[in-house]
Structure formats: C-alpha cells, structure tokens
Specification:
This protein is about 90% helix and about 0% strand. The chain starts with a helix and ends with a helix. It has one domain. Helix 1 runs antiparallel to helix 2. By secondary structure, it is mainly α.
Amino acid sequence: MIFFSLLLNTLLFFVVFNISYLRQKKRDPNYPDKPFSKLVLFPLALGIVFTLIVDMFKGIFIYQMLLFGLAALFLYWIFYILNRKSN
C-alpha cells in the first residue's frame, strides 16, 4: 500500500508542478528545457516526504487508538469489576 501511495503522491506532485511546462513545451517545441532536478527530482522528493509523513500519522493514530482501548478497558475494570467485588 505504501508503494501505491508513493506512486500516486509522486504523480500528483509531478502533474501539479509540471503541467504548465508540459503544455507550453507541447505548443512550442523550442521552449527551453526545464532542468531535470526541477522536472523530476523535486516532485519525487515531495512525494516521498509527503508519503512518509502521512504514513507516520496513520501509525500514530493506530497507536493512539490502541492506547485509548487499553485505557478504556482499565477504567472499565476499575469502575465495574472492582466495584462489584467491594459491594
């Protein structure tokens, strides 16, 4: 899934940052070439960074939900199970 996300994010950034250049180059073949670093490497780097950040937040969310579930079970045990034994 991470590879699909990386591919999709990279393509999205490539289109966003290069659509005007590609249109201009199609209209006028003599239009100056864009440097490889700006044409490919910049959108690729943004796609990698964005994918890593989004996947990190997904991991943090799952971890937080796990901690919440454990805390909820612990509180249930304190308020309902221990309360029955004391009565």
